[in-house]
Specification:
11 strands; nine-stranded parallel sheet; TIM Barrel; globular
């Protein structure tokens, strides 16, 4: 294998790492709560991923959407929270002084709740809110990562808003754990991929799903002709998360230690994936081991596919 073949190594999950390290109990606005109350902890987690060889770190703003903040009476904190997330990522890079390039990704998450297609707002409302998120983040990031999208409507609106920034947009969709060819909305993954490509996405991914489901769905991503990849979660059944609740009630799989997770991810790379990392319950140790496996196999780690 030529060592000129590159793979983007993303970071892993942020929320679960923060839960493990924080002295506070998780809340429905967990990433926003920690960003407000424990910003140094966020910087530390970013730094740990950089030191684990991640080449892309994603802003800690997953729950800081207009809808969710308004629901909790925190609308006025919107700009402050996003700037704090940018500052935490920048500080992590400054503190670790990595010898390799590290890109900062903006985050365009589900606007209301994870995994619940029924909660997705109208097309007009989605586009307006994603544009607000892009405006708050664009000056502090190198690209936008749309994450955990459950519907084609989210794909279209998030990718459109992200593309307007002039930054590359990578679209991550979450699929049914039992059927990796379908989004959690029941829509086909192929339709989501087609929508992302039509909106100018630079890459397509599957995230926050079982690694086995990602393996099943990757051929659909590959057919797009775009760079593709995946980053899985470590939950037994993420779809059981009630809207507005915390992940504290979800059960964690015990069969996805760093070695087992890397085996899945290296299988994705063998299928042509060029962007891999981790989502919930995939921590710095997983990312470090995956990076070591990639380099041992002759791949060069990169911040761009």
């Amino acid at each position: 294998m030529s060592n000129q073949q590159t793979v983007v190594l993303l970071d892993g999950g942020m929320g679960q790492e923060l839960i493990k390290r924080s002295a506070n109990a998780p809340t429905p606005l967990w990433s926003a709560t920690v960003m407000r109350d424990e910003p140094d902890l966020v910087t530390t987690v970013h730094a740990d991923y950089i030191q684990a060889d991640a080449r892309v770190i994603t802003l800690n703003n997953y729950s800081a959407t207009p809808v969710r903040l308004a629901k909790h009476g925190l609308s006025t904190a919107f700009s402050e929270l996003h700037q704090a997330a940018i500052t935490a990522a920048q500080r992590a890079i400054a503190q670790t002084k990595p010898t390799h390039p590290v890109a900062v990704s903006g985050c365009l998450p589900p606007l209301v709740s994870s995994y619940h297609a029924e909660d997705v707002p109208s097309e007009a409302a989605c586009l307006a809110d994603y544009r607000a998120l892009v405006a708050a983040q664009k000056d502090g990031v190198n690209l936008f990562l749309c994450e955990t999208l459950t519907t084609v409507r989210e794909v279209q609106t998030a990718a459109t808003a992200g593309k307007e920034s002039g930054h590359p947009v990578w679209v991550g969709m979450t699929v049914d754990d039992q059927d990796g060819t379908r989004l959690r909305s029941g829509e086909s993954l192929a339709d989501g991929v087609a929508a992302a490509k039509a909106c100018g996405a630079a890459a397509v991914l599957i995230n926050c799903s079982w690694p086995e489901a990602i393996t099943q769905g990757l051929p659909i991503l590959a057919a797009s002709g775009l760079p593709f990849g995946g980053y899985a979660n470590g939950f037994t059944n993420a779809a059981s998360l009630a809207a507005g609740s915390t992940v504290a009630g979800l059960t964690v799989r015990r069969d996805l230690n760093p070695e087992a997770y890397a085996e899945h991810a290296m299988g994705w790379v063998a299928m042509g994936a060029r962007i891999v990392g981790g989502c919930c319950e995939v921590g710095p140790a997983h990312i470090q081991h995956l990076g070591e496996c990639l380099k041992a196999a002759g791949y060069t780690l990169s911040a761009a596919p």
